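Retro notes
What went well: the complex prediction finally ran end to end.
Inputs used:
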Amino acid sequence: MAEAAQREITYVGAIAEGARTILNEQEGAFIAGEDVAGAGGVFGSYRGLLDEFGSDRIVDTPISEEGIVGLGVGAAATGLRPIIDIMFMDFMGECMDEIANQMAKMRYMFGGSAKLPITVVTMSGAGMNMAAQHSQSLEVWLCHLPGLKVVTPATPYDAKGMLIAAARDDNPVFVVMNKLSLRNQGPVPEEAYEVPIGAAEVVRAGDDLTFVSYSRMVSEAVKAAEALSADGIEAEVIDLKSLQPMDTDTVIESVQKTHRAVVVHEAVRFAGLGGEIAAQIQELAFDDLDAPVARVGAPFSPVPFSSVLEQTYLPNADKIAAEARQLLGM
Amino acid sequence: MDQPTDEVLLDIHRRMVRIRVFETEAGRMAEAGKIPGALHLYVGEEAVAAGVMAHLSDDDWITSTHRGHGHLIAKGGEFDRMFAELFGRATGYCRGKGGSMHISNMDLGMLGANGIVGAGPPIAVGAAFSTKFRNTDRVAVSFFGDGASNEGSFHEAANMAALYKLPAIFVCENNGYGEYTPQANHQAIVDVADRASGYGMPGVIVDGMDAVAVYEAAGAAIERARSGDGPTLLECKTYRFFDHVGVRGMGLSYRTDEELEEWQKRDPIHMFEARLDELGVLSRDDAAKIHEGVLEEVRAGIEFAESSPLPDPETLLEDVYA
C-alpha cells in the first residue's frame, strides 16, 4: 500500500500548529509571555497567532517572569487554560516561587479543590553560542517538584503532539522545547493528535546495550548507535519523551534484554536526571545488569560562549559512542 | 459613595467579631498544644478584612497571606471546617493538607492563605485576568503586608494589573512590621500607597482601624475595578496586636508595650461598637450578645474539629495531581 506522502514541517512550525490547535478547541486557552504577540515569539513559535486570535488571547507581557507565571496560576485556578511562555528556561530563576511553591503545590495544599490546567512552554539547550544564561538544561529543577509534569519533545511530531497533550491535561505541564532543534524538519500530521504524557518510545531497536535519552540528545544517541552498528554493536535507543511522569517500564524492559545502559542527557551530569534513572535501573533490574549504568552529560561547568569551548562542553554522538565502547570493554 | 446602611454596619460588625473570637480561641488552642505548627493571628486587623469583604460575593476572588484566617472568615469561611483544618483533621477545608498557612476555599473565592510573602498579588492578577477574559464584573482582591510590598512579585503584579486595566484591588495591610522588622527598617517610605503612582494607578491611604473608612475606600476601589477602570492600591494602616507568630503581644524585643497600648486604644472593634451604640444601630448589650453567640459557634467548631477523624495515611499521595 502506497503511504500518503507525509508533510514535513519544522519543529518551530510544529509548536505554532500545536498552539493553534489548542486555541481553536479550548475557548479558555490563551498564550501569555514576553514578545509572543507582536513578535510572534522570539523563536517564531507563535507567528501568525495574534492576527488569527486577537490580543485578548495572544498576550504580550512585560518582562516580568514571576508576574507572568503568577498570572497563569491565578487564571488557571479560576477556570482558564493558560499557555505561558518562558522564553528561555534559564529565566526560571525569576519565577521559581510561582512555579515551585504555587503552581506545583496549590492543588495539594488546598486538599484537591483547585485544578491548574496550565501549560508552560520554555526553551532549553546549548549549541548556539548563547552562553551561560541562555543555554541551560534545567529540567531537573522541575522534575524534583511533585505536582508538575515535564515533557521534552525531541522531534517536530512530538513538539506538536506533546503541546496538545499538555494543554489538554488538567495539571501543570512544562513542555521543555529545544532551541537547537527549532529548524529541524520532520513529518507532522495536519490534524490534531496527542503524544501521550508518560510514555517513552523505543526509537531504535538493539540487543547489546540501551541508550536512555530525551530531547535533542536522542538524535545524538541514534547517531552513536549507527556508528556502533558499523562495529557490530546494536544499541537500543529510548526516547523518554516525558520525564515526569517517567515511563520506567520501557527502560527496564529494554535493560532486561540488553543488560547494559547508558543514560544520555545534555544537562550537567552531576545531580542530573541520569542519576535518578541509574538508581531506578539498579533498584528494578540489578540482576539483569552486566555492567554499571553509565552516564553521559555535560561537565560541571556553566555553558561557555566560544564555539570551541561550547562544543567541548556538549555531549555528542562521539562521546556517547566512546562511553558505550568503554562500557562494553572495547 | 453612599454611607453604609445599618444592615451593612451590622454585617461588618459581625464579620469583625467572628474574626476576633475565632482568632482568640485559636490562639488558646495553640497554646494548649492542640493546634500544631505556626499560627499567624489576625487580631487587631479585623476592620480591613471585614470592610473589604462586605463588598464581595463568593464569585469575587481574593488572595491572602500567611495571616489568612481573617480573610477566609470575612469571606464566609465556616468555623467547623476551619478549625478542623487547623487541627489537621480530614474534615478540614484542605483535608488536613494545608493547615493554617494554606487554608483556602475555592467555592468562596478564597485562593488560599500563602506561606510565601508576596506570592499572592501575581495570582490575584491572574484571577482578575480571568474575570476580564470572561467579561464578567467580578474582581480580584489581593491582601498583602508592608513587608510584601518590597517583594518583586508585588511590583510585577501591580505593573501588569495597571497595564491591562484589570479588575484588581491591592489591599496593603500595613501593620508596621515585616515579620519582626519595623517598617522604618525595611523601606524608606512611610506610605506604601506612594508606590501606586509608579504603576499608574491610584494609591489610597485609609485608617485600617476604622471599618467604615475601609468599607468606603474599598467600595470606591472595587467600583472602579468593576467598571473597567483598572486597579487601585489601598493602604490600610493597621496594627498586629499579637506577635508575628502566636499570641504574645506584650514584652516583645522588637516593639514597645507602649506602642501596643496606643494602638489598642484604637481597637477596631471597640471603636466600631462605640460608633454603633452612638448611632443607635447596636447597643452595648446587644453587641455583647453577638460576641457570646459567636463564641458558642467557635466552641462548636472546636468540638467538631476535635471529634473529627485524622486524615487516613492512605490519602498522602492523593491530590498531588488532578
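What we learned: Chain B touches chain A through 47 residues (CB under 8 Å).
What to try next: split runs per interface for comparison.
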